[in-house]
Design goal:
By secondary structure, this protein is an alpha+beta fold. The chain is built from 3 helices and 15 strands.
Length: 256
């Protein structure tokens, strides 16, 4: 009698285990293997090497893509004053490739890897055309006869080495003024711009001549597009007229 009871209990237990096993095989829950159950090496969940993106400004140039041969293909021109984000690691080392061949002309250049929020795509840009850890602004002198000068140092006694026209697009570096060295450093903004004749230019401009208003920046960008179109012989008349209209509409909005 006892053997019969024990046998019955064993059978019930076996059926229960079998039933549980069937239910487990039909489950849609993902299976999680522990390190003791798996023969594969354990992979730590580490952050990507370039996990940070630092706001920066395009001052000139174009967007490029890295092809399968390790060379850069031209994509499109970049608009000065556009904010892009440069990839960096926690030590603030930026993802950069040096001496990469451009497929357009075979020249070697240095490129930074960036993300463009406006387009939602990754690209590469040449180092000369990028101001890292900066924001865009426009040179604007409200008083007639006034002119914004660029100085090598943030010093009231310094002599300007060039003058900037109104609506010149500049990148302003995110940095604290060096008041330990210059008593009036807080009256200046450290800027970078691109000059078609002299290339990349950096220096200091009086704060009163630097305006970061987005509408003013948009006007300056459209004005630059218009001037570029005027210099091209086979420009699209319709596009040029649209740019004139856009500049006029923004001007009326700003000075109404």
């Amino acid at each position: 009698m006892k053997k019969t009871v024990v046998y019955s209990a064993v059978m019930v237990l076996a059926l229960a285990v079998l039933f549980a096993g069937c239910n487990k095989s039909e489950s849609t829950e993902p299976s999680v293997q522990t390190s003791s159950e798996s023969t594969a090496p354990v992979v730590k969940n580490e952050a990507p090497q370039y996990a940070l993106r630092i706001d920066s400004v395009i001052t000139d140039g174009s967007y490029w893509n890295l092809n399968g041969e390790g060379k850069m293909d031209w994509v499109q021109y970049a608009i000065p004053g556009v904010i892009v984000q440069v990839y960096a690691n926690v030590d603030m080392d930026y993802e950069m490739m040096k001496d990469v061949v451009r497929t357009t002309d075979g020249a070697k250049r240095n490129f930074y890897h960036v993300y463009c929020p406006e387009i939602g795509e990754d690209y590469w840009v040449q180092d000369y055309s990028l101001a890292i850890n900066a924001y865009p602004a426009v040179i604007y002198c409200e008083e007639d006869g006034k002119c914004a000068s660029v100085y090598k140092t943030p010093d009231l006694a310094a002599t300007g080495n060039r003058n900037l026209d109104d609506f010149t697009i500049v990148a302003c570096f995110n940095e604290q003024p060096d008041l330990d060295t210059y008593d009036h450093a807080d009256k200046f903004t450290h800027v970078q711009l691109y000059d078609k004749k002299d290339g990349t230019v950096t220096g200091y401009v009086r704060n009163s001549y630097v305006d970061s208003d987005k509408t003013l920046l948009q006007y300056a960008q459209m004005d630059n597009k218009r001037k570029d179109k005027e210099q091209v012989k086979n420009y699209d008349v319709a596009v040029l007229e649209e740019l004139y209209d856009s500049c006029g509409a923004l001007a009326n909005y700003m000075w109404r």
